[in-house]
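Quick one - first record:
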Amino acid sequence: MQTSSDRHEYPAHWEADVVLRDGGTARIRPITVDDADRLVSFYEQVSDESKYYRFFAPYPRLSAKDVHRFTHHDFVDRVGLAATVGGEFIATVRYDRIGADGTPASAPADEAEVAFLVQDAHQGRGVASALLEHIAAVARERGIRRFAAEVLPANTKMIKVFTDAGYTQKRSFEDGVVRLEFGLEPTDRSLAVQYAREHRAEARSVQRLLAPGSVAVIGAGRTPGGVGRSVLGNIRDAGFTGRLYAVNKALPEEQKELDGIPAHRSVRDIDGPVDLAVVAVPAEHVPEVVAECGEHGVQGLVVVSAGYAESGLEGRERQRALVRQARTYGMRIIGPNAFGIINTSPRVRLNASLAPEVPRPGRIGLFAQSGAIGVALLSRLHRRGGGVTGVTGVSTFVSSGNRADVSGNDVLQYWYEDPDTDVVLMYLESIGNPRKFTRLARRTAAAKPLVVVQGARHGAAPQGHAVRATRLPHATVSALLRQAGVIRVDTITDLVDAGLLLARQPLPAGPRVAILGNSESLGLLTYDACLAEGLRPHPPQDLTTAASAADFHAALSRALADDRCDAVVVTAIPAVGEGSVADAALAQALRSATAAAPSKPVLVVHVELGGLAEALSAAASTAPQVRAGDAPQTATQPAAPDQRPAPGDPPRAAADAHSAAPHPHPAGTDQPPAAPQAPEDAHLIPAYPAAERAVRALAQAVTYAQWRRDAADPGKVPEYDDVDVKGAAALIDGLLARGEGPALGPDETCDLLGHYGIEVHRSLPAPTPDAAAEAARALGYPVALKATAPHLRHRADLGGVRLDLTDEEQLRRSYAEMTEMFGAAQELRPVVQRMAPRGVDVVVRAVIDPAAGAVLSFGLAGAASQLLGDTAHRLIPVTDREAHSLVRSIRTAPLLFGWRGSAPADTRALEELLLRVSRLVDDHPEVVAVTLEPVVVASHGLSVLGASLRLAPPPARDDLGPRTLPAY
């Protein structure tokens, strides 16, 4: 049992689960007086060499005094942390605060000596790096700003731990010892190192689950049917390349096989390692199974068992216990209540799911929190006809169920660098950590398309999901996801539609669309759909119903060669008659033309053309293909994986002039020219049954392509000479120390904003008519009289604001009218403010959301933002390019740019204000809310007429803290 320390209560918030470099997990926690026996046992398993490196001398065993010293901490000046697996220590780290002379000290001394010891069997797993992140966070929390470490020159591994951490360092060598000193404030490099380690560890942990060398299905029933037996059969039927075992404790002693698969009563009885266990036993028996798996060294679990958080409070507690138990053994969990996982790679061929058929291999990564939606998506991607015609394929599929441990964030880490995945499709019913998801999504989207549909948008998340509370509406979260490059869609139909287009078609260079086909009406529908989606369509080209395959080929070739066109939509309806174009011939014509000019996306809208859908089936395939310009491959010479272009990359140049230009077809024939020399299905054309669906997918690709171009130059966070960061920090510390807040008064608000160059127009209280007149004389006419009571604040439409009062007579008359209409001055709380130049009234807000992080919002003041919700959002810190786009992203932005002959507002000054507010909130996490309303943006300059600001103590762990898994 963990107890309190000498001076401080046990800091439970320092406990954390972490993913190590090899994908396993460990628990980091403070060392207490109850750990004496664990410490001794740990030390006995450390090699003599490691002990020598730690103590600079032979040190075979710890004395009683050593054990007391290393287990008794005050959690302020002396702190020890341990990394544990299975409840036993595998590594330790401690710091001791020291003074300038190197002797033990207390605050305000801000330096500490740090030392590590890692069990030899666990060296190389990244344990020391994880411990360094956590001990550094603890030290910062306790007011320590620098670490010093003395290391023997031969201890190169430990020296590398310190030098690779990314902190600003100073190194010296004296008396045969290397002394390292480094500050603990996070730097851009230290954060980059931390994120890179997080990525490698989490990606590896998912890779261990998706590509196991051996699988045990625990709970495989003795008779056909049932969940466990079904999963076992699905793994076998998929042709899993590793070792497969059936486990059921009810099996007779003499039974050694089940459906031809080696069978055992317990996973302990399996002779050899088990990488993955699929758990399909009743929830009450799962803890016993997890213990057996942990003791046998199983690396990960897929828990398909139900009866957890989705079933209520008791199930939620059972789910927490499951995660804690699995992490104790270093295992990760998919589930519980999971549908399962699939990996179609020929090296793996794993179908550890309830899906009776394996989807076709392809290049789409698919994640679904819901099993039912996962089934629907797999079905749509698998079948021909129906939603989207053609065949597509999946690289890997994960259905996380209650996502108690492995989540969409972890799978994104894996797919980011997975060479077998080109497009990521995700169905999310909740986002447990939006802040991290947007960070990972931005990085992923810069390399490959990420399409997301969110369920439960208008209600609570499913019961089984642990979700951080958020104050942001769904529309705001969606806007932040789009900012991160996520392609946000509303339905699973849209999800598949977009995925098919993005999987193998190039990204469009712009919004200009050519439309051609054999139906004038269908062409006009497509034209209207393009306009509705914000595209720029050319007038449709009607080839008439008599058009031949050669006519389609010629028209498509001309459109693709036109520099004024960025994409082509081909519309086709069935034709009746002797001379009507055959489906196979039309498909060949379209693919032939596309092959000759593969740099622009082509989509087909078809109406009841089953034969064409069949003929174009290769067009929607996402299996590895050869694109135009690649050297033709033979059956005995497959294309190398590293030669495959990434999605959205421009195609390689054609191999020769003949393969780059269309071949004229023989005179007197209706057949299109032969395609360049390439496999039959090298040029992939997605087909859609409705114009609206095709155009919607194209519009999403256009928006994503523009985001990719913009992301290549994201801009910078500018520096301003008049920003006083230290002065603002001192003011905030003083206000919090005096107990000010959470809402600051007007004077404190103006002072703090002033440190960031944000000037607020001064307003003076006017409790009486005489006070109002005196305030106006002090400020100078003309003035405004405003009621600041909550129900009248900023409500000129109700009479709570009187403007352009040019003399005392007008002021007193307005004061009398306002008090007569709304009540006594004590209720109205009137103030007098000098008039600002006329302009456009806007509102600027920043808020720290517990789930999404710091968010900057902007809109026009009044009905536009309050009634219509016309507000745009960006994550903080905001760059200059983001501020530029933020101002222009609201629907009412034309009012800022001279709408209907009005004078254009000074948007450069507005962008600078946005950037200054962003800097304030980013520099000082204690600032949890800022509102500037109204801000009048004139032709030259702007005026901040109202401001409010809230402070709160910063959280113990912020975004710059160490890597951790979600707590349970």
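second record:
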Amino acid sequence: MAPNGHIGPGDGEDRSCPGEAARLRALDRYRLLDTPRERDFDDIAEAAADLCETPIAVVNLVGDGRQFFKAEVGLGVRETPLETSFCRQALLQEEFLYVPDATLDPRFEGNPLVTGGPGLRFYAGALMRTAEGHPVGTVCVLDTKPRELGDRQRRGLMRLARQAMAQMELRRSLREQAEQRLLHERILDSATDYAIVATDPQGLVTRWNEGAERILGWTEAEMLGSTVEAFFTPEDRARDRAGTEMRLSLEHGSAPDERWHMRKDGTRFWASGEMMPLRTEADETIGFLKILRDRTEQRDSSAALLASEMRYRSLVEVSPQVVWFGDADGNVTYCNAYWYDYTGLPAGETGEASWMGVIHPDHREATRAAWLAAAGSGRSYEVEFPLRRADGQYRWFLSRAQPVRDADGAVRSWIGTSLDIHERKVAEERFKTLTELAPAIIWFGNPDGSLSYLNDRWYAYTGQTPEQALPLGWGEVIHPDDLQRLLGVWEHARANGVLYDTEARLRRRDGEYRWFLIRAEPMRDAGGAVVGWLGSDSDIHDRRHAEDDLRQAREQLRLAVESTGTGIFDYDLVSDTLVWDTRTRALFGLPPDAEVSYDVFLAGSHPDDREWVDAAVKTAINPKGPGTYDIAFRVVGLGDGIERWVAAKGQAFFEGGRTLRFIGTTRDVTESRRAEQALRETEERYRLASRATNDAIWDWDLATNHVLWNEALGEAHGYAPEAVEPTGDWWIAHIHPDDRPRIDRSIHTVIDGLGSAWSDEYRFLRADGSYADILDRGYVIRDAAGRAVRMIGAMLDISERKRAEEHQRLLTGELQHRVKNTLALVQAIAGQTFRNASDLAAANEAFSARLISLGRAHDILTQSSWSQAPIAEVVEGALAVHRGGTSRIRASGPNVPLAAKPALALALALHELATNAAKYGALSNGSGSVDLRWHVVHEGGAPRFCLTWSEQGGPPILSQPVRRGFGSRLIERSFAAEVGGEVKLTYAPTGLTCRMEASLASMRETDDEAAA
């Protein structure tokens, strides 16, 4: 617990700041800017937020123009500019900056952090200063609401600032010690003139430097684990010289000697060496250090010896620590340059008065006594003391020395080092202080269950004194209902050497009990035996209340979920337990008390969805997967058989590379799915209807001039999608130039007016270069102000209809022409038939027969749309009534297509010939016959058509006719006049012969008819 006394600004040591540059250099020594978050600093920030009950807390390092947050709570960023920060003002304070309401503080007038977002109102910050007094940052708390800060909170915040500073100092000290160890290793390896060998207590090699490899010939890999006797001579091995040196070094602190040694290749060399024990700070021997130097050439040469000493001195001159030599009587004879650089003493001065004068007065006599005792006994020397630097500041040093002995073990000299351990000492002191300033109760336990230490937090909270609490009186403040359980857990932890972890209520000095989390870790010695316990008690009373509030919030959430119709599932993958609420069970057609499992989930999934739904869940719970899923699938009620659509969302929770839980919600979306399906079916019907009409449907955004087309544009007019520009300009440009102005006017009349429907016809350019006749219809969509914003329409290709209309027009004209011609022909036939008729009945019969023949010719021509008729069909139609089922009329000739006029003329001529033959000629008896032959004669420039009618076997013709009848005249008129041909009738005794001849072109001519 923190003391109840008030710490105000100015308390403590001098806090003067020598300048911004010096402050930034001091901050840089800690190397914490832009480093990742660390738990120790996060705990301080969280403790500050808890202590002051604010939403924001920061461990802040103030750099050059910025502030870096080593730890933060409720802020969400790691760095901000310094211009508008509150901490900038904190650096101007002696110890503490407290702003209850920034809007009332003139220092923050116009500050955007106050006047704008996030609207900060409250600030309290405790300054973090280095030991030299440089302010490097703050531990501060902030809030968007004004608030008051109590004295206890103020003191606690200042303690947390000192705790944060202690953490910084500790990290700096550990880093510098590691650098120092690395430097020593490098110095050791750089000493290639010395064979430096470290062993374990049994003399087995554990370290073999490069000098040993160079001098002795063995590599480190070859010697590790081997005995040092390998490089002793056979005679020394026989006398166990190596064991003797180890024994002497233990007795006297070192065992120097000069003697012959062996190399790997079997050669001998003279070496000066020394064996020294390696001891821990607890004076436990952990091995030996053997240093050898090849002195073969220098053995009888004092010059070489001097050179060797100079090289050795050169080595220590560059050492990053104080190296010094003493004579056998303990008088310091040499100090390296580091000593004079540090102390500022004149170079070469080594007298006792000089080195005693720079040791802190409080430690001089103890240091001198320790050195004289070591020098008098010949044992190693080790002591710690503060040493004054040239600038007057004292720093802690660890000074060690070992005697250098001759072959007989007599002390010849001393070699010593003094190492700067100031950061380590400060860190140790600060760690001790940290236990006192920590927000939790810190305690040390003994293996028997008693306590040996409790920090001030315990006494401040409980009101006990150390005499009352230690070693076992602490149990009196445990709540009676919790004491036996706590003691049982404590006994189990001590008996098994495991973590001690429990919760109990502790009585405060005012009699109120509060919940605490009590934990302790066993501390073990090198052999693994538990030698004590380091424990902490953390106040979790508020957390326990928060957990109760959380349970209440969960109940409220449950009620809210039930009111929205949402179901919940919770799948514990560690225990393979699946939990569904009542609503989720109902979705699967299960009663509220039905047992559920993952197999039940799969069984209730629709068979068509089961496989992919299972795969989706497995993907979500895979630690390498997304950790979430959001799907909709069908279920078939296990109890009611009803098919439903379920939308499910889930979140997986992972720890240590494995999935712990999978939690989510379910919702019945059957109705929305059915609505979506109905919409899709409607859209599909529209799409099919659109395709069935083959109309090119367009959607024109009048604001952007963007036009969307359906696929019918390509199908009907041949345009590939990439060839169509989605603009109204492209459409207008493809309208026939003669139609374009008219269409542009007609459509804009509707768009710019108040109408909504538009329709017009025009010619549209196809992809192949031809034009299609188009009937285009559109509908204008207007906004609330009546402005046209969109137009939707369809282009109907009416090219076929247009062609059909044109064909109908031509047919109508042709029909009119044919009717006129037919009536004229009928009129002529009637006139000739009845003009001089003496027998009206016979004239009527002849007239009817001629009309029937004319009708048959019309039938034949009608079948070919009055274009052409094959001659064989014309002949057959004209003579069919006269054949009478016999073959008395024999017709033959090539297939010659006949135009309409020649066909009618030929049909009438053949009808007249057959009628006359039936009355008077070859067909008037039972034995006559007719030969009808036609052919094409290719003579001269143009082929000619020839047809011959020959009668045989009829009544003989005894004389030439005295008058020409109507039939003869009809034949001549119908053929000669209509086709420009020639008709020749020959009345031979054997029968009539009729020869008709015309140019082949006239028999096929259709241009005149078409033109008519």
